[in-house]
């Protein structure tokens, strides 16, 4: 998908490649079970340490000498297994510039997705410091929520679609560990992106194409443009 000078491609599950046409810079986010012959990335963003987001073999596949890997502190032990990359630890609230890129780490956590029958422990607690990312390239702003429910902090992001930006929201739709399709629609209504794109499905972990199609259908009923991307 072309957005201004930015090309956005889906790697499957929560993984994406973003290519800045102006500079040629390639950014990967949470690559997992990526296909063959994918070009190397200059920067790889990881939202948290779970195996389907911080996949060592996929980071190895997409990295080269000097590739920057950016993520929370708890990914460090995994990244030590990848040779010749530069690890940059980031935490919620950090804003970092990488040449033409401006990156902000935002919260990602669960409110109502529980790992125990007593409903006391969620899969992604706020206390763990898992992140989503706002990636800004010129007038293109891409929001990758990470593994998250619709959370109060999303209210702080509603202005991006009102500032002359192309604001793209990448929203999980599978339920179980993240938002359901219906909850993701509520997030899209709140955020008001130019385009809402479903993720967290179709990789054999959780979530199906039907979840993504349901999300797109409900978005359109709300007047929100939603697009399903084909996996590369």
List keywords for this structure.
28% strand; alpha/beta; Metallo-beta-lactamase, Chain A; 232 residues; 13 strands
Q: Quick gist of this model?
A:
By secondary structure, the protein is α/β, with parallel strands linked by helices. Helices cover about 15% and strands about 30% of the residues.
Plain-language structure description:
This protein has 232 residues and is α/β, with parallel strands linked by helices. It has one domain (2-221): 4-Layer Sandwich (Metallo-beta-lactamase, Chain A), CATH 3.60.15.10. Helix content is 15%, strand content 28%. It has a 7-stranded mixed beta sheet, with no helix packed on it. A 6-stranded mixed beta sheet has the order 8-9-10-11-12-13. Strand 6, helix 2 and strand 7 form a beta-alpha-beta unit. Helix 3 crosses helix 4. The longest helix has 13 residues, at 209-221.
Average pLDDT over all residues: 95
What is the CATH top level name?
Alpha Beta
- Quaternary assembly: single chain
**Rg over C-alpha atoms, rounded to the nearest angstrom:** 16 Å
Shape: globular
Q: Helicity level, as a percent range?
A: 10-25%
């Amino acid at each position: 998908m072309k957005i201004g000078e930015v090309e956005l491609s889906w790697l499957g599950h929560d993984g994406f490649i973003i290519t800045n046409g102006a500079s040629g810079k390639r950014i990967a986010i949470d690559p997992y079970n990526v296909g063959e012959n994918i070009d190397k990335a200059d920067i790889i963003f990881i939202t948290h340490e779970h195996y389907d987001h911080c996949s060592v073999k996929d980071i190895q596949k997409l990295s080269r000498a000097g590739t920057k890997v950016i993520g929370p502190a708890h990914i460090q032990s995994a990244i030590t297994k990848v040779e010749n990359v530069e690890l940059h630890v980031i935490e919620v609230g950090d804003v970092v510039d990488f040449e033409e890129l401006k990156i902000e780490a935002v919260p990602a956590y669960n409110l109502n997705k529980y790992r125990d029958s007593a409903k006391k422990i969620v899969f992604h607690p706020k206390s763990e410091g898992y992140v989503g990312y706002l990636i800004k390239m010129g007038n293109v702003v891409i929001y990758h929520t990470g593994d998250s429910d619709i959370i109060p902090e999303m209210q702080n992001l509603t202005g991006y679609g009102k500032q002359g930006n192309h604001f793209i929201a990448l929203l999980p739709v599978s339920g179980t560990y993240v938002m359901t399709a219906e909850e993701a629609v509520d997030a899209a209504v709140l955020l008001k992106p130019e385009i809402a794109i479903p993720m967290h499905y179709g990789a054999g972990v959780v979530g199906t194409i039907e979840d993504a199609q349901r999300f797109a259908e409900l978005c359109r009923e709300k007047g929100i443009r939603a697009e399903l991307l084909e996996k590369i």
